[in-house]
């Protein structure tokens, strides 16, 4: 923008001809701010009224300074110390740049004064040499130069004021930068002190823990290791207890139960052979025996085989199932609300849960205890598996039954009812009248009737809910056993184990 040189000017006047010398040239070291002569608006008597302002790119220096100061005041409280110091450094660089620009403007202003002085001298010299209209033009040019000098002087005053404000801002920013650096150093020292304090605390805690570990006894250490092993085992069990793995484990358990039952059968057979050999040696001592087919759908009866045997009505009887280990027996319990339904009669009808198990019965009379055992495990009923498959193909299964007892009391009516076994519930009704209708739940119980009578193999005990129970008689043993197996299958699908009192562990 600077550096444009003013070429020598020569004006030829018709009045003087070729004898008029050229106007003195401006010094070669003078530079202009722009490459155009300033534009003015002339009034009466060629006076300069106002200067046509050129478009200035960017806001004035005062506005820039005020804006930066306000931004610094607003951000002083919300910026961190480190960010504030960085911002001060940036503003300081900006202020330095503004100061450099002010210096360049001052140099340009001095160059302008020199140029105007030389131009006015040249015009004065030219006015003395010219006359007429040319002289008036020169005088107008001189007045314009003088007005331009006045304007330049005003601009210099404003420039001096801006320079003072810039210096003031630079000093303020320098002081703020120093304060920010002091705050940064102070915060850094505080942080270092806190870190050292935290390290000391951690070290003390570590020493205390080491001392506590050294003081622990061997018993506590072993207890801790045991707890850790239990937690790890619990985690393993939790991981394994997933739907697919639970099903796999159930299948494995069923296979193991079948294998154990087979071994139990062999063991029981050996015990029976041993017992039969002993009985053969001393047959005169046998007082009672079991009669009836030892299979599902039949009835086992206790009969006396000696005149010396006491009457069964005066004896106490209890039936047992042999567990997977033949050395332990599981009593066939009675319901705690209905004691007459227990397996404590001279007659017992096996149910599907007894298949594959050996049954025993204790007869106690006059402080004398006699134990009778089946020859082997209870066999399956003929054609029961095919009958159950036929029932499973049907969406609904209804059985004709007669109510024998209701809530432990004999039911006098011999009318036929429908015993409905569904996938989600069991229902007992007669026509439109519903006796009971309950969904499968933990409070529901279903098992073979454990009382006496000739219809025990066809009878079934059902506790719909607490306080409501029924003993129903089916038309055949196959229907009773099929209804039991079907109901337990549907209950298992609903995550419910459906059995008699304390029989759920056998399923």
Descriptive key words:
disordered N terminus, alpha+beta, 18% strand, eight-stranded antiparallel β-sheet, 507 residues, four-stranded antiparallel β-sheet
Protein structure class: alpha+beta
Largest sheet: 8 strands, antiparallel
Q: In what range is the share of β-strand residues?
A: 15-25%
Molecular shape: elongated
Descriptive notes:
It is a single chain. The chain is elongated. Helices cover 47% and strands 18% of the residues. It has helices at 61-78, 81-129, 133-215, 218-240, 243-281, 384-393, 477-493; strands spanning 40-42, 48-51, 288-291, 300-304, 316-322, 329-331, 347-348, 359-365, 368-373, 397-406, 409-410, 416-421, 425-430, 433-439, 445-448, 459-465, 468-474. Strands 10, 11, 12, 13, 14, 15, 16 and 17 form an 8-stranded antiparallel sheet that branches. The protein has a 4-stranded antiparallel sheet with strand order 6-5-8-9, with no helix packed on it. The chain has a 3-stranded antiparallel sheet with strand order 3-4-7, with no helix packed on it. It is built from 7 helices and 17 strands. The model is unreliable at 1-36 and 336-340 (pLDDT under 50).
Task: Produce the secondary structure layout.
Blueprint: E1 40-42, E2 48-51, H1 61-78, H2 81-129, H3 133-215, H4 218-240, H5 243-281, E3 288-291, E4 300-304, E5 316-322, E6 329-331, E7 347-348, E8 359-365, E9 368-373, H6 384-393, E10 397-406, E11 409-410, E12 416-421, E13 425-430, E14 433-439, E15 445-448, E16 459-465, E17 468-474, H7 477-493
Antiparallel strand pairs: 1-2, 3-4, 4-7, 5-6, 5-8, 8-9, 10-11, 10-12, 10-17, 12-13, 13-14, 15-16, 16-17
């Amino acid at each position: 923008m600077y550096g444009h040189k003013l070429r020598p000017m020569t004006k030829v006047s018709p009045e003087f001809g070729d004898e008029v010398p050229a106007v003195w040239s401006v010094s070669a070291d003078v530079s202009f701010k722009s490459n155009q002569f300033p534009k003015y608006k002339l009034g009466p008597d060629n006076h300069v009224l106002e200067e046509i302002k050129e478009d200035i790119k960017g806001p004035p220096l005062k506005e820039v300074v005020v804006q930066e100061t306000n931004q610094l005041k607003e951000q002083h409280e919300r910026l961190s110390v480190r960010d504030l110091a960085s911002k001060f450094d940036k503003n300081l660089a900006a202020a330095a740049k503004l100061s450099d620009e002010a210096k360049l403007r001052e140099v340009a202003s001095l160059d302008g004064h020199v140029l105007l002085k030389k131009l006015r001298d040249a015009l004065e010299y030219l006015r003395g040499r010219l006359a007429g209209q040319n002289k008036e033009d020169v005088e107008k040019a001189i007045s314009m130069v003088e007005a331009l000098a006045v304007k330049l002087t005003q601009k210099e005053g404003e420039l001096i004021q801006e320079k003072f404000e810039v210096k003031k801002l630079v000093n303020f920013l320098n002081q703020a930068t120093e304060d920010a650096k002091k705050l940064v150093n102070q915060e850094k020292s505080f942080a270092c002190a806190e870190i050292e304090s935290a390290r000391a605390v951690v070290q003390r805690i570590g020493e205390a823990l080491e001392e506590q570990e050294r003081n622990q006894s061997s018993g506590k250490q072993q207890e801790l290791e045991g707890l850790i092993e239990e937690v790890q085992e619990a985690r393993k069990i939790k991981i394994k207890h997933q739907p697919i793995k639970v099903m796999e484990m159930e299948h494995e358990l069923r296979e193991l139960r079948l294998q154990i039952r087979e071994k139990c059968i062999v063991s029981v057979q050996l015990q029976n052979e041993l017992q039969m050999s002993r009985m053969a040696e001393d047959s005169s001592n046998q007082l009672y025996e079991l009669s009836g087919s030892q299979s599902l759908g039949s009835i086992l009866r206790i009969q006396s085989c000696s005149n010396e045997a006491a009457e069964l009505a005066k004896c106490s009887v209890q039936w047992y199932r042999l567990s997977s280990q033949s050395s332990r027996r599981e009593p066939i319990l009675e319901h705690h609300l209905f004691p007459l339904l227990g397996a404590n009669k001279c007659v017992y009808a096996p149910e599907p849960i007894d298949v594959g198990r050996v049954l025993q019965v204790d007869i106690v009379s006059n402080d004398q205890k006699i134990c009778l055992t089946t020859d082997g495990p209870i066999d399956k009923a003929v054609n029961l598996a095919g009958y159950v498959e036929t029932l499973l193909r049907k969406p609904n299964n209804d059985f004709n039954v007669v109510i024998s007892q209701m809530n432990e009391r004999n039911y006098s009516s011999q009318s036929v009812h429908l015993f409905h076994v569904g996938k989600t519930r069991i229902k007992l009704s007669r026509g439109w009248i519903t006796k009971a209708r309950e969904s499968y739940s933990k409070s529901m119980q279903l098992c073979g009737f454990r009382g006496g009578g000739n219809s025990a193999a066809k009878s079934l005990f059902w506790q719909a809910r607490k306080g409501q129970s029924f003993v129903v008689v089916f038309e055949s043993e196959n229907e009773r056993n099929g209804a039991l197996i079907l109901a337990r299958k549907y209950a298992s699908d609903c995550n419910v184990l459906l059995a008699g009192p304390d029989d759920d562990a056998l399923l």
